[in-house]
Amino acid sequence: MSAAATERAGAIAARVEAFVREVVIPHEADPRRDHHGAPTDELVQALRDKARAAGVLTPHILPDGSHLTQRETALVLRKSGLSPLGPLAVNTNAPDEGNMFLLGKVGSAEIKERFLKPMVEGRARSAFFMTEPALEGGAGSDPSMMMTTAVPDGNHWVVNGRKAFITGAQGAKVGIVMAKSADGACLFVVDLPHPAIRIERVPNTIDSSMPGGHAVVSIENLRVPADQMLGASGEGFAYAQVRLAPARLSHCMRWLGACTRAHEIASDYANRRQGFGKTLIEHEGVGFMLAENLIELKQAELMIDWCADVLDSGAPGTVESSMAKVAVSEGLMRIADRCVQVMGGRGVSEDTIVEQVFREIRAFRIYDGPTEVHKWSLAKKIRRDWKAAQP
After folding, report:
1. Do residue 244 and residue 217 come from a single domain?
2. What is the pLDDT of residues 27-77, one digit of tens each?
3. By residue range, what is the domain housing residue 176?
4. Which tens digit of pLDDT belongs to each residue from 252-280?
5. How far apart are CA 177 and CA 174, in angstroms?
6. Of 360, 367, 287, 376, residue with least CA distance to 323
7. Residue 106 domain-assigned (yes or no)
8. Would residue 58 be called left, alpha or beta, if left means φ above 0 and alpha means ψ between -120 and 50 degrees?
9. Residue 120 resides in a domain
10. Do 258 and 296 sit in the same domain of this protein?
11. Looking at residue 141, what DSSP letter applies?
12. Fewer CB in 10 Å around end: N or C, the chain?
């Protein structure tokens, strides 16, 4: 990363960090939550109003519409993640950040004006409709199992199917829907709410940072104008790949920020709490856990930066983002677990965000591809590379 880019991103990241620490963190106890424990849209908009006034709303997208490099984005998103509310407040949260990236890369001028602009301005949340109910044989980690159909009808497409674990669908204003035509996968951009898209239920899940939860949705005879398709029929998987690797890495960035904060809280506790004649940090068992946290926080940071550099080179980064997703999510899980352990009873209570970070990271090990799927994919690459190297 050039010195100018480092200076630019560093200045943005510093403003974001100050905003999150001074403005957002005091709202962590705000009672505006839904019955799943997620922040309500009222709370999100209140925080975004403050972010807009502070000049830190959607900080990874510059005023001219250009996007920070992935390496620069890493600096900014880590700071936004210092609070579970931070990404929501400054508009760097999932799935919106990934959806904005996708529409910015491949959307037509009309799509950018109609759908992307209100998202960048923080006035609209979005949802990405890909995953389908597992017990019905639908797509999950294997998108080739897609069962939702798209059939052409004049200058429209008609979409039918069911989706599951659709983050933020309830309350979203923009939807990106994946379906399968005779040519292959397709992506459509639609206005929400829509009478043909019905939320069946929003199940309780282990995490609670996403407004709208993770809904199960039915799509019945959804008519979409042909010009709201991203690209052409059958190109959906290719366009999804544009979003995939950066979105995996963005998750790593945000949750690294959250674990950094959890480590700060656990360290503060260990330096204040007395036990058996001295502070907890002076007990080797506790001190070593926090030392291991420092090591793994740095390892996660370096892994993210390495993958970001690959993406910034123009490479697809599919393999590298799989490696980063596995290494970072597993490392952060160990960090969050140690923070809980160091804090004992306080670590499993709602008195601090440590217990929430633990829950969120546990979900992160599954979202955007479980560890095992990424390892399986990497093992297949090892096999392919070996066969290609044989005489």
Report:
1. no
2. 999 999 998 899 999 999 999 999 999 999 999 999 999 999 999 999 999
3. 126-232
4. 999 999 999 999 999 999 999 999 999 99
5. 10
6. 376
7. no
8. left
9. no
10. yes
11. S
12. C
3-state secondary structure of 201: strand
Q: How many CB atoms lie within 10 A of CB 155?
A: 8
Domain presence at residue 100: no
User: At 328, which CATH number?
Assistant: 1.20.140.10
* Same-domain check for residues 291 and 260: yes
Token pair recorded at residue 73: 């984005």
Q: How far apart are CA 60 and CA 67, in angstroms?
A: 6
Tokens of 330: 């597993």
Q: What is the DSSP string of 58-91?
A: STTB-TTS-B--HHHHHHHHHHHTTSTTHHHHHT
Tens-place pLDDT, residues 191-233: 999 999 999 999 999 999 999 999 999 999 999 999 999 999 9
**Looking at residue 296, what DSSP letter applies?**
H
> Residue 6: pLDDT above 90?
no
Residue 18 pLDDT greater than 90, yes or no:
yes
Alpha carbon distance 68, 72 (integer Å): 6
b/e sequence 193-228, b meaning 16+ C-beta within 10 Å: eeebbebeebeebebbbbbbbbbbbebeebebeeeb
Same domain, 225 and 270: no
Is residue 240 within 8 Å of residue 187, measured between CB atoms?
yes
Q: What is the C-alpha to C-alpha distance for residues 293 and 304, in angstroms, rounded to an integer?
A: 16
Cβ atoms of 147 and 134 within 8 Å: the answer is no
Specify if 118 maps to a domain: no
- The model's pLDDT over 343-364, given as tens digits with 9 standing for 90+, comes to 999 999 999 999 999 999 999 9
Please give the Cα distance from 308 to 317 (Å, whole number): 9
Distance set, CA 334 to CA 129, 279, 361 (Å): 31, 23, 9
- 23 and 86 part of one domain: yes
Q: Are residues 207 and 251 in the same domain?
A: no
> Is the whole model's pTM more than 0.85, yes or no?
yes
